[in-house]
């Protein structure tokens, strides 16, 4: 599972500032994902979920800032076998969908906008 975040094309900031801002966004996003996964009252904290046994899901969440066709973006991904089943649900295993990335994105939206705004002000 992966999510891509990029800065609005209408903002005129140079590529290095975009990369700096997106690295901060990626770092903040991953910290919040790990906090949500390890929180005892989270919807992701059921004892039966595999990430609570080994911590593999929490450790596998990574980000990478890349550019493609002139667009700079950060790609955040969870590279475990069961991440797709956990986030999207699995009817054969009777697993309810728990979309971690969407949950964290909604929770962090104001903070992410603030990080990007600060990066723009530095230029």
Beta strands, count: 3
Name the shape in a single word: elongated
Strand order of the largest sheet: 1-3-2
Give me the Rg, rounded.
16 Å
Structural class: alpha+beta
What string, H for helix and E for strand, traces the elements in order?
EHHHEEHH
Counting DSSP H or I runs of 4 or more residues, the number of helices is 5
Organism: Gluconobacter frateurii NRIC 0228
Protein name: HK97 gp10 family phage protein
Overview of the molecule:
This protein has 123 residues and is α+β, with helices and mostly antiparallel strands. It has helices at 15-38, 51-54, 56-60, 83-88, 100-121; strands at 2-6, 61-68, 71-78. It has one domain. Helix content is 50%, strand content 17%. It has a three-stranded antiparallel beta sheet. It is elongated, with a radius of gyration of 16 Å. The protein starts with a strand and ends with a helix. This is HK97 gp10 family phage protein.
Give the secondary structure arrangement, pairings included.
Elements: E1 2-6, H1 15-38, H2 51-54, H3 56-60, E2 61-68, E3 71-78, H4 83-88, H5 100-121
Antiparallel strand pairs: 1-3, 2-3
Helix pairs in contact: 1-5
In short:
The chain is of the alpha+beta class.
What attributes does this structure have?
123 residues, alpha+beta, three-stranded antiparallel sheet, 5 helices, 17% strand, elongated, HK97 gp10 family phage protein
């Amino acid at each position: 599972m992966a999510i891509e975040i990029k800065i609005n094309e209408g903002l005129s900031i140079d590529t290095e500032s975009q990369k700096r801002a997106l690295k901060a966004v990626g770092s903040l996003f991953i910290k919040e994902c790990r906090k949500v996964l390890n929180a005892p009252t989270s919807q992701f904290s059921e004892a039966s979920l595999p990430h609570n046994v080994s911590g593999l899901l929490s450790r596998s969440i990574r980000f990478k800032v890349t550019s493609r066709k002139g667009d700079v973006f950060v790609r955040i991904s969870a590279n475990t076998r069961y991440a797709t089943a956990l986030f999207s649900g699995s009817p054969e295993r009777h697993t309810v969908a728990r979309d971690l990335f969407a949950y964290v994105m909604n929770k962090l939206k104001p903070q992410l906008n603030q990080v990007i705004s600060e990066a723009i002000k530095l230029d």
